[in-house]
Task: inverse folding
């Protein structure tokens, strides 16, 4: 007689997300006290450019490209005057360089014309710039202006939000809305840094290190037995 088939393992039953969320934040803050934006920048202009370049590219690669880029184009006004072929050559290694060049030239031209070369500091203004969506605007507002307008949802934040059952959504905008309901506004920017740090260090997409995870007892997806 064949042995009975094992039932697929289900996620652990834990408290609702609203009850677990504060402790998850507390533990991750303790684990990653130096969590911050990984894109090197000295001002809002540099961060906006770096964030546009980071689409479908690692922060590490962007940080290799931007020093020479910012030396050649230190302001929105100088970037707006760049020759497309020269800019493409400088950012080629970040991928999708033609589309990024178009976005950078469009963004810098509008900033130069409409805002006297200064990066605007509101969500409404930022998302009107070429190549800038809500995610990019959140990065700039939270890290260059110190304004918690939303939660940056990248692939790490999306993955961890689902594994930790902080959101059932797959759409970044809907995940962001769920996270904004769970955490106070003054934690929104740091929340992204913490989840990204944890995603890189422990909660890998393919091989999460659940046995080393500081929130494994709060995670319904954990492979560690209770």
Result:
């Amino acid at each position: 007689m064949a042995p009975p088939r094992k039932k697929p393992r289900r996620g652990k039953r834990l408290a609702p997300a609203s009850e677990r969320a504060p402790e998850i934040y507390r533990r991750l803050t303790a684990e990653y006290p130096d969590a911050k934006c990984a894109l090197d920048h000295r001002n809002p202009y540099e961060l906006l450019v770096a964030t546009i370049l980071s689409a479908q590219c690692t922060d590490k690669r962007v940080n290799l490209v931007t020093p020479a880029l910012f030396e050649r184009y230190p302001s929105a006004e100088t970037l707006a005057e760049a020759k497309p072929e020269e800019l493409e050559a400088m950012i080629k290694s970040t991928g999708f360089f033609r589309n990024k060049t178009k976005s950078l030239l469009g963004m810098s031209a509008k900033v130069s014309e409409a805002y006297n070369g200064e990066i605007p500091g509101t969500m409404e203004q930022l998302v009107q710039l070429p190549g800038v969506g809500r995610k990019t605007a959140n990065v700039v507002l939270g890290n260059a202006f110190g304004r918690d307008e939303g939660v940056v949802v990248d692939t790490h934040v999306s993955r961890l939000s689902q594994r930790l059952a902080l959101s059932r959504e797959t759409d970044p905008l809907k995940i962001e809305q769920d996270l904004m309901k769970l955490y106070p506004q003054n934690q929104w920017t740091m929340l992204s840094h913490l989840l990204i740090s944890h995603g890189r260090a422990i909660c890998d997409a393919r091989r999460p290190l659940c046995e080393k995870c500081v929130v494994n007892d709060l995670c319904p997806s954990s492979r560690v037995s209770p």
